[in-house]
Design brief:
This protein is mainly beta. Helices cover about 0% and strands about 55% of the residues. The protein is built from no helices and 17 strands. Strands 1, 2, 3, 4, 5, 6, 7, 8 and 9 form a 9-stranded antiparallel sheet that branches. Strands 10-11-12-13 form a 4-stranded antiparallel sheet, with no helix packed on it.
Length: about 230
């Protein structure tokens, strides 16, 4: 588990006990990567029924399309999953939860390790039906094109992120685009990850089972609409 330094400001009202929404604010050029069109922000806003919290990281920006809400620990309330990029360390998957009514960075993947190296989240689901939630993402979708799946869980007050599996030859984002393509879909046989191949020529569907990723070809890539259920 990795904890990240952050700055928290209570925006309005008393601290709440449940996250109801999240958004990125304050577009910034401080990082200057440009991987996502208009996708670098100074702060994350977390909404609760009682008020809003502003969250900012030291020597880092949020580099993402939108924050994601998901119940990662099965307690019936959501956490926030974001992509945070350190000025020297590059991108990481960051989990933020309320701890004693205030936002805290409770867990993160190991940063890629180099400035201007990004990751694109594909989706969040229990991909192997073991009762624990996974986050699927493409590590450096413009360079390494590595699909990774990590499991997120909490035991007591301790959060953990563990890599489940990885597979090369996947992408879900074009450099400079505003949106991530594909995602995690249940097309009738349980949740699967839909991506393009490394050359943006074929549609790939990947399933997690027994700690391994198995990929099958679904046909030619013809645009963003082809990276969905058929």
């Amino acid at each position: 588990m990795i904890r990240a330094a952050l700055t928290v400001a209570l925006m309005a009202g008393p601290a709440g006990a449940e996250i109801t929404g999240a958004r990125y604010v304050e577009p910034t050029s401080a990082y200057g990567h440009g991987a996502v069109a208009g996708g670098e922000y100074a702060r994350l806003i977390i909404e609760t029924a009682q008020g809003s919290h502003g969250v900012a990281w030291e020597n880092a920006v949020v580099e993402d399309t939108a924050p994601r809400l998901a119940d990662l620990d099965g307690d019936g309330t959501p956490e926030v999953v974001a992509v945070v990029s350190g000025f020297q360390s590059g991108a990481r998957v960051q989990v933020v939860d309320l701890v004693n009514g205030r936002p805290a960075a409770v867990a993160a993947t190991v940063p890629i390790g180099r400035r201007h190296r990004w990751l694109a989240i594909a989706g969040i689901a229990d991909l192997d039906s073991d009762g624990r939630v996974e986050v699927a993402y493409v590590d450096r979708p413009h360079l390494a094109r590595m699909l990774r799946v990590v499991e997120v869980h909490r035991t007591g007050e301790v959060w953990q992120i563990t890599e489940e599996a990885a597979a090369p030859g996947h992408t879900n984002h074009r450099y400079g685009a505003a949106e991530i393509e594909g995602g995690v879909f249940d097309c009738g046989a349980g949740p699967e990850i839909i991506t393009a191949d490394a050359d943006w020529a074929r549609v790939q569907v990947t399933r997690l089972a027994d700690g391994a990723l198995t990929t099958r070809d679904l046909g030619a890539y013809t645009g963003p609409e082809s990276l969905r259920c058929h």
